[in-house]
Design goal:
Elements (H helix, E strand, L loop, with lengths): L1 H56 L6 H16 L9 H24 L4 H5 L1 H36 L3 H7 L24
Length: about 190
């Protein structure tokens, strides 16, 4: 009788460990998927920028410094890649800084439109502005989704008894996607 009870308890512990382990795998995969979604939205943003630059070039020929700053910031941002499977704070900080530079350059570009009424009325420019605004909203939603998954993973790693399985299998906490510069926390103002 005592042997049966010990066997049942042992089976329950093993089942708990398996389910807990699988839960960590699921959460870690969700964090990677959420980061990949941020990456997709940033790629979409990077793809829109050359079209925006070309549209603005026709109207603001003597504003080449601003246009070059946007192109440089875009190129810098596309060079920073954070692998969804190996998220680390340093790489995420580099990406955050590159995105801050790009957002600042885009803000200056959008401010140019105030000086060019024909540009503000251009259908292509308005469509690109709408798509970029939509993309910025998707980036924000992707960041929130990522941070939600990181929160869930980190809570499970810190909580008892999950922390036992997390320690045994070396599951590590993930870093939140945070913006260091307070100015970055403000949404990009796109006005036409």
């Amino acid at each position: 009788m005592a042997g049966t009870i010990i066997l049942i308890v042992l089976i329950l512990i093993i089942l708990w460990a398996v389910f807990s382990y699988n839960g960590f795998i699921s959460l870690r995969t969700q964090v990677s998927e959420a980061w990949a979604d941020i990456d997709v939205q940033l790629k979409r943003r990077y793809d829109l920028i050359p079209n925006l630059i070309e549209t603005v070039k026709g109207y603001a020929k003597h504003e080449s410094g601003t246009l070059e700053a946007v192109i440089t910031a875009r190129n810098n941002a596309t060079q920073v890649h954070v692998d969804a499977g190996k998220l680390d704070a340093v790489a995420m900080q580099k990406m955050s800084q590159a995105e801050m530079g790009l957002s600042g350059a885009l803000g200056k570009l959008f401010a140019l439109s105030e000086n060019y009424p024909d540009l503000k009325a251009n259908t292509n420019f308005l469509e690109l502005q709408r798509e970029l605004s939509d993309t910025e909203n998707k980036i924000q939603a992707s960041r929130r989704f990522y941070n939600t998954n990181v929160r869930d993973l980190n809570i499970k790693i810190d909580s008892f008894p999950g922390n036992i399985v997390a320690g045994m299998f070396h599951f590590e906490k993930s870093d939140f996607f945070e913006l260091e510069d307070k100015a970055q926390r403000e949404p990009v103002q796109v006005k036409f």
